[in-house]
Amino acid sequence: MEAVIKMGAEDFTKKVAEESEIDSEREELLGVDNIFKAVDLERRLEEKGKQLKEKDKQLKEIEKEIKQLKKQLDETK
Predict the structure, then answer these.
(1) 44 CB-side CA count, 13 A
(2) Which of 8, 22, 32, 68 could bridge across to 17 with cysteines, CB 3.0–4.6 Å?
(3) Domain ranges of the chain
(4) Residue 37 CA to chain centroid, in angstroms?
């Protein structure tokens, strides 16, 4: 039964593609291109996340230094 349904779905897909004049090879290549774009975007997002963590770490260090300088300033008054 499942094979019949599967075959029917494949036939339906082919029929729709033929009727709409879709170039299946082109569509396949577009799908592959989209996969590459998604992987590239994931890598870039991961890199941006690492950069953000580094900037956050630097900001915390600067805030710590500011607190120390304020403390020194208050002590000299």
Answers:
(1) 6
(2) 22
(3) 2-76
(4) 9
What are the φ/ψ torsions at residue 65 (nearest 5 degrees)? -65, -40
Q: 21: phi > 0 → left, psi -120 to 50 → alpha, else beta; which? A: left
Name the pTM for this structure: 0.53
Name the residue type at position 44: R
**Rounded distance between C-alpha atoms, residue 65 and residue 43, angstroms:** 33
Phi-psi region of 65 (alpha: psi -120 to 50; beta: other; left: phi over 0): alpha
Show the tokens assigned to 17.
């593609």
